[in-house]
Amino acid sequence: MSFYLIASVAALGGLLFGYDTGVISGALIFIRDVMVLSTTMQGVVVAIALAGAAIGAGLAGHLSDRAGRRGVILGAGLLFIVAAVVSAVAQHVAVLLLGRFLVGLAIGIASMLTPLYLAEISPARERGAIVSLNQLCITIGILVSYLVGYALARATGGWRWMLALGAVPGIVLSIGMLVLPESPRWLAGHGRVLDAENVLRRLRGTTDVSQELATLRQDIAREDRKLASARELLSPRVRRPLIVGVGLAMFQQITGINTVIYFAPIIFQSAGLSSAATSILATAGVGAVNVIMTVVSIWLIDRLGRRQLLFWSLGGMAATLFVLSGAFLAGTSGALAWIAVISVAAYVGFFAIGLGPVFWLLIAEIFPLALRGRAMSLASVTNWGFNLIVAVTFLDLVGALGGAGAFVIYGVLSLAALAFVAAIVPETKGRSLEQIEAALDG
After folding, report:
1. Structurally, what CATH architecture does the domain formed by 3-440 represent?
2. What is the pTM assigned to this prediction?
3. String of b and e for 29-64 (b: at least 16 CB within 10 Å)?
4. Residues 405-426: what's their mean pLDDT?
């Protein structure tokens, strides 16, 4: 199996992440009527998956540091299958909430471990593009969920099929992970240097991996580690990477991206698009922009670097959020409704070219090997925790301030994120993981 096929199979974790994150936006329009859900309960249906994701991300780092990346990703694939079935057959809200919580656990594990695994198997010169395959798969999963939602919008009980189809990529991921290799960096970090060498040869398609293996050995010798104590997360050498990772995790969510992913059809109906099907179709158009701009990001990320993409991304997000706010302020006529749609699409495009993929890439790059799993878990839990806060508060925020006020707040927070990137986020383009670790040490 070639390196690129291995990376593509592993990136299916991102596809499941995207599909199960996005599918609720179309399904919720029907679930709220079938199960007679209040606005608060609609928020709970979305939020319980996010709570599960925070827990899953928190568990994944410790489990993967001890048991390996491959086995835990395989477990996540199996959990996606079970969760999809439970959600689809639910007759009562309690069972639906259980299914969505299990989906969240799987999403949390996949969201953290997929970019980590991809980063640890990739050569330095291609790592940005390879890890960003995860984000591309997330956006494809979201787009597929929107298209499925549109296709099944008029079908009786269509929302059940929307949720059930998440089992399909889960089956493919589970089968694929049975034959994929363990991370060579995890193997080397656990004293299995010969196994690491064999995996590197398989990944690189060459018998000469001496230079990469020598770098790994030097890194291991320098830290004299097997498993570092979690208390080292508070040590000075991890302080800057942790501030960067946790800060980007927070800003990726409080700038509002998942209000669009979860509630786009509802936003578009509020802006003046009349039917559920039209709103879902407009949402699918936004999803297509997300995919296209992520492809652009993959092409640019190892050329321009991480920081430059973040600058363009956050500046564009702020500008389009202010335009969207103005569209809501002006009213909800037909023409203004489509201005809102275009603004949302542009906002998502700017997110997809920078903050979307770069956050997951950077947290897979900047932490020391001995703490990488647990440090990424902390950043991922932060990400899902703020995701939960934004999802729970969004509809109430719109109710209190209107769409215009809510999106102004997200625009201001995008500018704050831009200042954070300028002040502290490092450039990691073209460096090996061991070189990045040495540069940030202390």
Report:
1. Up-down Bundle (1.20)
2. 0.78
3. bbbbeebebeeeebbbbbbbbbbbbbbbbbbbbebb
4. 94
